[in-house]
Amino acid sequence: MAAKSPAKSTATTAKESAPTGQDTGRRSTARRSLVTRDVLEKATLLFAEKGYETTTLQDIAAAVGVSRTALYHYVTSKEELLAMLVEQMSVALADTLAALRAREDLTPEGKLRELTDMLVRQRAESPQQFRVHDQTESALPEPMRSKHRQARRDVLSALSAVIEEGIDRGEFKPLDPNVAAFSVLGMCNWVAWWYHSGPDYDIDAVARQISQSAIDMMAADDATRAPADSAKAALATARSSLDALERLLPTDGA
Amino acid sequence: MAAKSPAKSTATTAKESAPTGQDTGRRSTARRSLVTRDVLEKATLLFAEKGYETTTLQDIAAAVGVSRTALYHYVTSKEELLAMLVEQMSVALADTLAALRAREDLTPEGKLRELTDMLVRQRAESPQQFRVHDQTESALPEPMRSKHRQARRDVLSALSAVIEEGIDRGEFKPLDPNVAAFSVLGMCNWVAWWYHSGPDYDIDAVARQISQSAIDMMAADDATRAPADSAKAALATARSSLDALERLLPTDGA
């Protein structure tokens, strides 16, 4: 039972006694990080419900079920909670995506699949965190705000780089890589707005469909898939579309 | 000059004298709606910057450049402004999409192209309105909240219905229509987060690429796919190819 819901059972322990010294060692560190996660989750829900500005540390302590004094063992300010949210939602993600981008064992398609799968699952797991994180950007104190913005740029550039790699190899259509990256991000991020775990959606199926959609919108047509130079391919596609147009339009005088 | 910037010149007139009776007739109605639009825009920016809760009618009056008494000719409460935002951002859109869905002269692909084009352009034109509208959902008083939720469901169901129609006709892949609809909505809605008018992005090219991406992620494999079915579709494909070509060719003098 305890093994099944460690976060919950640890939070209960924390209510009884907050860690006081070095006697508990490694176990205390693990417990501390679980309680901190619980605090962060409760705080995020409050920020989402009441707004960041109007939420107090007292509200957060009450939601976690500890006294305000006990809460101070874990966080000392709302700003610190925001900083943790940024760290979790963008900095850590940006690092993971950068590492994925650099992997040499994956094709651009393989990388795109992994990237989108990871994004969809993270948004589905922490929808409130993602939305609050997005809404509170303007409340972030420095240097958190710069760190957050840099992480956002890093996520975008990892995704754009994978798309550009696919275009260069003739595997992806010659799309605008930034617009394509934003489209994929939008598709994945939006999961935080609509996904609810439950019988309606199976997260594995959702992640699979969205990843496949991202690949399908990039994939070069079979005709243009050859590593032939892409300008030539684009010109050929334009010409055949114009041919189709000619056939479809009424002839002169008709 | 006045004809070039009616909203601005009318706003100036409003500062001098708010409409007082039925003497101005139709002109007054037009002016009123322009000023109201200006008020709504300014209010939205304030909601985005300061938060809905902390913005006062006095702040809004100051931003518009009128007295609070003059503002009362146009709006009587913040709730009324929120209601207008809902009307503009979701109810009107839901109606337009429902009408588009019912058009018999368009294939599912043609409908999807029109729907996404419309969504992308609206998000690009009113990014703050869309984001504030999304963030303030919980602040909406009844019956606005229900109206807003119904409109959101209507937008989703119009899009899902078009996708289902495409699947039934064998033109689209047999995807989960709701997940596919949310993916398309995410891709379009996200424009409100990243698009800035300016030299970086041409809105026509952006709308074209996103619409084409939505179609490409739905389209059944070539084996089951119908040929370009409308002049508009052929033209859109030709234009996307030309956009790609433009990006691929070295710039002048390079």
Automatic annotation (TrEMBL), chains A, B:
Residue span, HTH tetR-type domain: 33-93
Asked if the record carries the keyword Transcription regulation, the reply is: yes
Coiled-coil residue windows:
none
> Region annotation Disordered: residue ranges?
1-32, 126-147
DNA-binding annotation, residue ranges on this chain? 56-75
Organismal lineage: Bacteria, Bacillati, Actinomycetota, Actinomycetes, Catenulisporales
Locate the compositionally biased regions of type Low complexity.
Answer: 1-20
State the Gene3D superfamilies in the record. Homeodomain-like (1.10.10.60), Tetracycline Repressor, domain 2 (1.10.357.10)
Q: Which organism is it from?
A: Catenulispora pinistramenti
Matching InterPro entries: DNA-bd_HTH_TetR-type_CS (IPR023772), Homeodomain-like_sf (IPR009057), HTH-type_TetR-like_transc_reg (IPR050109), HTH_TetR (IPR001647), KstR2_TetR_C (IPR041490), Tet_transcr_reg_TetR-rel_C_sf (IPR036271)
Supply the name of the protein: TetR family transcriptional regulator
